[in-house]
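Extended Data, record Nuclear transport factor 2 family protein
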Amino acid sequence: MNEEHAQAAADIAEVEAANTAFYEALERGDYDELSGRWLPGEDLTVSCVHPGWPVLTGRGDVLRSYALIMANTEYIQFFLTDVNVSMTGDTALVTCTENILSGGPAEEGNALGPLVGQLVVATNVFRRTADGWKLWSHHGSPVLTDSDEDDDEETPS
């Protein structure tokens, strides 16, 4: 393997590690770690789209959205599949499927509330910085299942 290919492979491995670390911080509810995963000094250009939410622009609004999600989610776990990394210069594009298992507060007692599965396709854009790869943009879109589509179809009259 020549030096150029070796460097590209190393860059891809670093981006994959940064992507995984982002999801792990979210799973742990570690706001400080999650905040550190986002591009600093880009208060106006950072963006995020959570499934069903409007576009959030600006580092402050994006990080507030994650604080809100963490405050209202008792349990969340991501199983990432179909992870693909594309790179150009100091920008990396990661596409993946988020297989999400989450649960809210219990209705009675101390047990965890019912667990819910969700499928989301995501695009994460990273920029290379002196402190490693940082998220510039996240976009998650729900995947409609056959049962979701059936619910939306009108019944013949």
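Summary. The mean pLDDT is 89.
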